[in-house]
Amino acid sequence: MELAVDLNDIYESSNKIDRLIRETLRSSLNQEKLIKQLIEIEIELDHIHWHYKSLKKELKQLLNT
Questions:
Q1: Is 45 in contact with 14 (CB distance < 8 Å)?
Q2: CA 50 to mean position of chain CA atoms
Q3: Are 2 and 58 in contact (CB under 8 A)?
Q4: C-alpha 46: how far from its chain's center?
Q5: First to last CA, the chain
Q6: Any idea where the domains of the chain sit in the sequence?
Q7: Which residues contact 62 (CB under 8 A, 6 or more apart)?
Q8: Cys-Cys crosslink for 33: which of 28, 29, 57, 58, Cβ 3.0 to 4.6 Å?
Q9: For residues 20 and 37, is the Cβ–Cβ distance under 8 A?
């Protein structure tokens, strides 16, 4: 079950990062808004990293059984 949640969250976050990057590139943001966008991207990357580590741990357990 957790495996599916991790995969889904990685997928959803990658779509959000794609959207955030496209929005950032399309618009002319002032420095404050650009910083906020970059922070949002960083948060999503951290979220993906957390789920990747969880996924990797679960896969390791599956392969060792």
A1: no
A2: 9
A3: yes
A4: 6
A5: 17
A6: 2-63
A7: 3
A8: 29
A9: yes
Going by pLDDT thresholds of 50, 70 and 90, the confidence category of residue 65 is confident
Distance between CA atoms of residues 48 and 41, nearest Å? 11
Q: d(Cα 3, Cα 57) in Å, to the nearest integer?
A: 10
pLDDT in tens, 2-59: 999 999 999 999 999 999 999 999 988 899 999 999 999 999 999 999 999 999 999 9
pLDDT of residue 27: 87
CB count within 10 Å of CB 6 equals 21
Residue written as tokens 């997928």? 11
Q: Report the alpha-carbon distance of residue 65 to residue 23 in Å, rounded.
A: 44
